[in-house]
């Protein structure tokens, strides 16, 4: 199962991350998520065969071809993950703040993308909001045997989008969310983006303590409260 490792690493009763499932229709979406976990890094994800192939890039991408950025291949993620921006609770796998830093589509420059991926050298073009142009992912011969992960390199190809690191560091120049414009701190401070299981437990305990309360299944339909038309406005200053 393509997402077996993804599922095994997460408790979906505690994390707001999407459970998702492999997609039958194969798209070409691309996303980079800025992840302030134990260490800040950037997660590159390319949609392939109904899932997001994923690489953790510690230093993030660079438009400078001389900057060969380490990209550690991690478990496949569901396509739904491309829209995830929020906070993974502390203590959960990957605990920290996640931002949709860049998004768009990717186009393989290889005749057979799947064969290129298996071979360990992928050439592609990004059509994102922050990153554009041709890039290469190449698998290194060395392997992190202890973690069972493959080390790759993310390298910018030479084209009209090349810029030296001294001239333009994209991660420093464009640090905020491509979706909401928020900073990592603003996302972290927005607690509405974190799902807390304890809040549900507290509510359940309060309901049990109500005198005369009886346990029942939730009704199929609840009649909405309708507005009533009046010709005069309410008194006081608290109605607006």
Number of domains: 1
Q: How do the strands line up in the largest sheet?
A: 1-2-3-4-9-8-7-6
What characterizes the major β-sheet?
A: 8 strands, antiparallel, barrel
Tally of extended strands? 9
Q: Portion of residues in helices?
A: 10-25%
Our Rg estimate from Cα atoms comes to 23 Å
Query: Which residues sit in consecutive blocks of at least 5 with pLDDT less than 50?
Result: 195-201
Class by SSE composition: alpha+beta
Q: What's the total helix number?
A: 5
The proportion of residues in beta strands is: 25-35%
Order of helices and strands: HEEEEEEHEEEHHH
Q: Mean pLDDT, as a whole number?
A: 88
Global outline: elongated
3D structure, described in words:
The chain has 240 residues and is α+β, with helices and mostly antiparallel strands. The chain is 14% helix and 33% strand. The chain has five helices and nine strands. It has helices spanning 4-8, 113-119, 170-173, 184-189, 197-208; strands spanning 29-36, 40-48, 51-57, 69-78, 86-88, 96-108, 121-128, 132-144, 149-156. The longest helix has 12 residues, at 197-208. Residues 195-201 have low confidence and may be disordered.
List the topology elements.
Layout: H1 4-8, E1 29-36, E2 40-48, E3 51-57, E4 69-78, E5 86-88, E6 96-108, H2 113-119, E7 121-128, E8 132-144, E9 149-156, H3 170-173, H4 184-189, H5 197-208
Antiparallel strand pairs: 1-2, 1-6, 2-3, 3-4, 4-9, 5-6, 6-7, 7-8, 8-9
Briefly say what this structure is.
The protein is 14% helix and 33% strand.
């Amino acid at each position: 199962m393509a997402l077996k490792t993804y599922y095994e690493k997460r408790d979906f009763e505690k994390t707001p991350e999407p459970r998702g499932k492999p997609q039958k229709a194969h798209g070409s979406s691309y996303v980079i998520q800025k992840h302030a976990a134990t260490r800040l890094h950037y997660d590159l994800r390319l949609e392939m065969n109904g899932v997001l192939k994923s690489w953790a890039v510690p230093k993030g991408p660079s438009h400078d071809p001389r900057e060969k950025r380490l990209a550690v291949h991690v478990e496949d993620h569901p396509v739904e993950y491309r829209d995830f921006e929020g906070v993974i609770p502390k203590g959960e796998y990957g605990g920290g703040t996640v931002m949709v830093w860049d998004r768009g589509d990717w186009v393989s420059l290889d005749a057979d993308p799947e064969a290129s991926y298996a071979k360990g050298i992928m050439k592609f073009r990004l059509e994102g909001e922050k990153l554009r142009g041709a890039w290469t992912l190449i698998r290194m011969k060395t392997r992190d045997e202890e973690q069972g992960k493959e080390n790759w390199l993310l390298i910018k190809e030479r084209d009209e989008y090349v810029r030296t690191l001294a001239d333009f560091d994209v991660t420093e120049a464009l640090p905020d969310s491509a979706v909401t414009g928020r900073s990592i701190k603003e996302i972290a401070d927005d607690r509405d983006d974190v799902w807390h299981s304890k809040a549900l437990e507290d509510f359940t305990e309060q309901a049990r303590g109500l005198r005369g309360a009886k346990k029942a299944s939730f009704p199929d339909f609840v009649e909405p409260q309708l507005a009533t038309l009046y010709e005069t406005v309410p008194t006081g200053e608290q109605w607006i």
